[in-house]
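Support request, please re-run this one:
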Amino acid sequence: MFIVDHKSLRLSFNEFYEFSEKDLPQYGEYCLLELKDGAYTAGGWHPSGDDHAAAGYFLRGTADTVDAEEVARWHSLDRYDLTACLEEEDINWINIGREEEEGDRNVQFEGFKSFADKKYPKEEQFCLLIMKDGGLAAGRWNKWRGEAGGSFIYSSALASHSWDEVWAWTPLSIDKFFAMELERENEKKREKRLNRNPIADPELFKYGTDIDTYYEKALEKLRGEFSWATVTMMRKKTPVWQIAPLHGKYVFGQISKNYYDDSDIVTPWTEGATADEFIDYLVRYTHDTVERSDPEVKFKFGTDINVYLDKAFENVKKDYRWIDKKMLGKTWQYDIRTVDGDLEFVRKCWNESEFSVYDVESAERFIESVEYDYQNEALRENKTVGSYAPSFGHIEIHGWNLERYVFYKLKSGDYKVSVTAGDRVTGGSREFFITPYCFEAKTYEEFLDRYLEIVPGYSFGLGKEELLPDNDLKKFLGY
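Re-run finished. Output below.
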């Protein structure tokens, strides 16, 4: 355990090398850098071309580099272990490398802080690090979103040192990324200051600053065309409009959340300059949503949810012949309830405590949605008894690579296929039931014609050209 007082500790870097063809770091070596403009940063050396040429860059993080031409001197961080020094209580000065007599040859860093003292760098701040293993490092601070702590990014692909690996840290010089973050933070502070007492344009807000008033006035106009219109229906058109302060003035705006810090981003309405113009715009904005919300269309079979569920069940049973009602309800539950004054189809997952609105415009669309859920539940209940995976080479599908394509025989005698594709960072799988209609085909070729309407080759990787010659697949499918 280190017992040096980090608050009084100073590090003196003494063994700098002039950046030239004679004195170059090793490939990938992480170095403290003195730039020609006098700033200090750090990075891992990546030569371009000849390893002995002073050309290349120092990598600090993903899309974050320092060109060799910007560097005056470098000092290795990788070659030192401070463990022995940090275990001495009375030490407050550590020389890194040979101590030079000339004072202008060394560079000192102090003002170290510790996470143990609840001290954190500012976002995007590039810092010099003393690690808990006694090593030296550097990196750009990146606070973890939605949780305590963070990491110091130091190389590509977000390679980082976690905060709990760092004993103490101190900032290096301001660079363009940190300067941008500082300006963003300053802008947020200015915006907050301006918005303490926002003003309202009398022409734009002549009906006040309650957004409900404007929705109600737009509703009056919509009811001239749609007698069933309600504000609840209008607000299904998202994002909804709000009245919010922006640059010291009230605006009609749509508000979204900044991914990085969860702050509000206000996008103002710019299609007019008066309250009545905004009301007319609100009518146009919500028109199609209200038109698709006719209760007589949506609840054409009444308000008993079982009527809709029974219709979905009977439709699914035509192909998924093994399904019975005991299989259902293990994943989704459905109901018709009054939400904000309007009747709505609602559903919840088995592990949720509350229902959520299932926004569909017609009874038929709701039934189709339930059918999809029932089909998935039916497949989960039908165990597999055999499988066959056609062989294939490299297949790219709209930027994704086909990774897995497997046919399964089910306990009921039916078949399904599972397809998996992805790229370097994401991927996904889908299952498809092969309907009895496909197996009514007299020949294997005719079967494939019907099957590829369900799992088309241009979307999922394998087409008729690849599947038709596969005699093992043909036999597996019963042809």
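The chain has 13 helices and 25 strands. The CA atoms of residues 125 and 174 lie 7 Å apart.
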